[in-house]
Amino acid sequence: MAGSHNISRRDFVKLITGAVGAIIGAAIGLPAIDYLIDPALKAAGKDAWVPLGKLETFEIGKPTLATFTRSTVNGWEKTVNSYGVFVLRSSDTDTLILSNKCTHLGCHVNWNVDKQEYICPCHDAQFGINGEVLGGPPPRPLDRYTGDQVQVTDGKLLIYFRGG
Ligand code: FES
């Protein structure tokens, strides 16, 4: 009887020791597992408001390129991408914002002052000052940021960028 009582006590001590070990293991191991898994679960790009600069610094009547970078995480790999938009203020209250990404295959267009056109260097496409296609293979005008994708806060111009 006494022997079985001793064995029970030993089993009880083993049980408590095992439970304490499991708790300590979880306390140490779970953050480590979270650290290892977290990057793989993160979204590969986040939508966000991107500041382009003070609105007043964009000259009226002149398309001006504003650039920014966004980083994406894919598993453990981080990639930093560059983007650009042309800001054209036609007055104190009217601003046109066009993506600089050609709608053909995505090359970056440049503003040509002499021709007053956006030119795509990849396949010689031309876009008008409002982004309309004037020539070349692009299937549609340059993409615009309009309406609720644009805001001015404290004098700063921001666009809602979809990083998806
Ligand atoms: S990518 Fe611009 S014309 Fe082809």
Can you describe this structure?
With 164 residues, the chain is α+β, with helices and mostly antiparallel strands. It folds into two domains: 1-41; 48-161, 3-layer Sandwich (Rieske Iron-sulfur Protein), CATH 2.102.10.10. 24% of the residues lie in helices and 37% in strands. The chain contains one helix and eleven strands, in the order αβββββββββββ. The strands form three sheets. It has a four-stranded antiparallel β-sheet, with no helix packed on it. Strand 6 and strand 7 form a beta hairpin. The longest helix has 40 residues, at 2-41. The radius of gyration is 29 Å and the shape is elongated. The termini are far apart. Residues 102, 104-105, 107, 120, 122-123, 125, 136-138 line the site of FE2/S2 (inorganic) cluster (FES).
Strand content: 35-45%
H/E order of the elements? HEEEEEEEEEEE
Bound molecules: FE2/S2 (inorganic) cluster
> Radius of gyration over alpha carbons?
29 Å
The overall pLDDT average reads 86
Number of strands: 11
Counting structural domains, the number is 2
CATH fold annotation of the largest domain: Rieske Iron-sulfur Protein
Structural class: alpha+beta
Oligomer: single chain
Proper CATH architecture of the largest domain: 3-layer Sandwich
Question: Termini distance?
Answer: 70 Å
Low-confidence stretches: none
CATH class term of the largest domain: Mainly Beta
The count of helical stretches stands at 1
Shape: elongated
Amount of helix: 10-25%
What is the CATH homology-level superfamily of the largest domain?
Rieske [2Fe-2S] iron-sulphur domain
* Largest sheet, strands/sense/barrel: 4 strands, antiparallel
Write out the strand line-up for the largest beta sheet, numbering strands in chain order: 2-3-4-9
